[in-house]
């Protein structure tokens, strides 16, 4: 029974292996055009993209995962193509005879792209206006070899393309040529190429803001050559990183056993070269040349340069050279002839502010860098406020050696700030020059409050004068004017305008006389009250006067009567 099980298992294994071999080899063994049936794609382990006489075009968004794809024609991506865990095998009829052309967007992730025959490479081009990323993938056999001219493998003609965490192996031409700005080529492995690793720009192609960082280059230019054969004059065989007529940054790279220049900067390029390690290189570690070429060379380690100077600056190029470690360089470490020049410096800290004047309540940005580049360095920013108090703020430098502090000053006046870095085992500490900025106080616009409504008297008679007053205060900081309205029963009957400086108050008074006895609603700038007006009360009768007059009349009557009686008696 056990023998039967073992025999059955072996038979099944042989059948499966036969099927897989047929699936992987049948495209190269068949001469007929094999059109891709997209309806059966999900069931296929291996299939072919069309024949050699017709381009395979991707005109609709498409995604492939966990597939083996054979390509016998140019692949033209006009829409969006996503490859994830895909093996793309390219059957080129000649060296460089087929091409992946990206007009739309191509994203390659965790995939392998290689030639069916390593002697027949292929090309891969992101054209102008295209988009995409190549990440965590293996690119083999790319490009076409020529001993006299550059034949790029991955040609990038569109800004913003990201190439990171890939392995470029056995590339027949230069692995990557960047012919666009704003490129990031980081954390890749370049291993054994016929020509070189990365070229940025060309005599007639200017690229800016290109970052080549944290890549590893092993045996550039040594594929197919004797280990210690020097490159031909005028050839690009073996250059690790080459900038032509461009600017950018080269940092954190490791280059070992190159055949030609590990780093070459030429044709007017402006590049910062920091924190790289170059070791066991046959030719120059850094080859800097041509009028207008300007470089910063700092904090690099260069060891075991065999045939020529470690750093050669010539033909009108200029270099600022800081703290580098150069060991075992033959014949000399740094050479500046013919017609080259260099300036040497130590560690520096640079600082700047976003604005020389800011308004109180606005943010200010203080930024700078430590040269040579230091990653995750603790930088102390020392601010002196207008009142003389020192404010300390700590920031950490980025992967580009830059730092930034964004904060909001709370005091108006003149500020100063400087950066201090304490140094490390290889560098002494440094303090930047002081920079200043002014924080201006913004006066609060005029704003008015009306309070303390008063009426005198609160109960009045018809035609009696009534005084109404309020207190107006400018609670802002700027001078302004304000109009006070007096409303009686909702109707504006009087207005007065006052002008007040910031913080000033005044009393505004109105006089009112009413002809009708009733209750009136009084409102002054939102403050409300009531006023009672009554009829005039007649005065009480003057009883004492009446009595006095009556008494006088009685007395006069008595006197007159007495006189008349006396005269009458006398006459009789």
Give a brief outline of the structure:
The chain is mainly beta and 572 residues long. Helices cover 10% and strands 47% of the residues.
Descriptive notes:
By secondary structure, the protein is mainly β. It folds into 4 domains: 1-101 and 110-120, no CATH class; 142-346, Pectate Lyase C-like; 348-440, Immunoglobulin-like (Sandwich); 448-534, Immunoglobulin-like, CATH 2.60.40.10. 10% of the residues lie in helices and 47% in strands. It contains 2 helices and 51 strands. The strands form 6 sheets. The chain has a 22-stranded parallel β-sheet that branches. Strand 38 and strand 39 form a beta hairpin. 34% of the residues are buried. Mean pLDDT is 83; it is low at 1-53.
As a whole number of angstroms, the C-alpha radius of gyration is 48 Å
Number of strands: 51
pLDDT < 50 runs, ≥5 residues: 1-53
CATH level-3 fold name of the largest domain: Pectate Lyase C-like
β-strand percent reads over 45%
Q: What structural class is derived from the secondary structure elements?
A: mainly beta
The name of the CATH architecture of the largest domain is: 3 Solenoid
Tally of distinct domains: 4
Main beta sheet strand tally, sense and closure = 22 strands, parallel
Residues in helices, as a percent range: under 10%
Q: What coarse outline follows from CA principal-axis ratios?
A: elongated
Query: What's the number of helices?
Result: 2
Name of the level-1 CATH class of the largest domain: Mainly Beta
End-to-end span in angstroms? 193 Å
Mean pLDDT comes to 83
